[in-house]
Amino acid sequence: METDVLGPPYERHTIDLGTDDEGPVVATLVRRRADKPTRRAVLYVHGFVDYFFQTHLADFFVERGWDFYALDLRKYGRSLLPHQTPNFARSLTEYFPELDEAARIIREQDGHDQMLVAGHSTGGLITSLWSHARSDRGIVDGLFLNSPFFDFNVPWVLRRPLMNLVGRTSSRNPYRVLPVGTLGVYGQSLHSDHRGEWTYELDWKPLLGFPVRTGWLEAIRRGQARLRAGLTIDAPVLVACSTRTYRGRAWSEDARVTDTVLDVEHIVRWAPKLGSRVTIARFDGGMHDLTLSGKEVRAEVFRELGRWVDGFLPPTGTPEEEIPPAPEDSAEGVARAEAEAKLAAGASGDKADTTTA
After folding, report:
1. Paired residues of 40 in beta bridges
2. The whole model's pTM is what?
């Protein structure tokens, strides 16, 4: 570990991932320790055109006694190298090696026996697929998805027939740039140089985003199709999103209180496909990254997240709550059942004697 760009107490570790068609590949694991030793940890994964800078999210968990980790995936943020195409991947499974290594470091090297995974937007889709693929290994104890990227925010004819066509051509030219809208409205709503309250590296998170390429689009499309077919994540899942979507391309004050990137109804529609223990929470006034919403909404997001964590991820070793017996299993219920059985047996014997006579 070395000191991170955020400065102390943040540290970072570079994960060597070998090479691909563009050359050397790395991912970056950022760590912030809680004040007291703990065996509980959070692993945060960012979205598209994003990286970890949300230190107030780390504050929330550290103050609750969790060690906080964030993973800048390959070709994102701290992990983006000069020779690479920003944020590009041909398959979402390409991210599984760095997630596996991050989980190994958290659990085996740093000694944590409980891990909550938090994924935002594209990170929410990636961590969902990874959690499903690793369900039989006991790696993920809980999953918090902040506005996960379960579907494209475009009309059906573009989401399905047209994207299927684009997908079939992606293998011939995966790096071809597609003429799609930018993230300008969302960027304006966030950055302090414009209409937002947050400061971050615009080289890693440009106001207008990075170009969308056919190979990346096909990777997302296949990942979303797999999710919609149904996953079997065996850990409890909290899916959180705004109550409204804003589709305008010009600035409006509504951009401060809505999701300007995804259709929130898609998130709610597909959330049950994650597994059998899914909780959905919606926040009026929430932005795409709920943790970057206005102060009051942000506070409500953290309150709800805290309640969910306390309910579904108590510290390891916490005694299970005693469940009162069902009426038929209680002592009185057993005695009553035995008495009724004796009465029934007696009535049956009387009937048999009468028949014989």
Report:
1. 114
2. 0.90
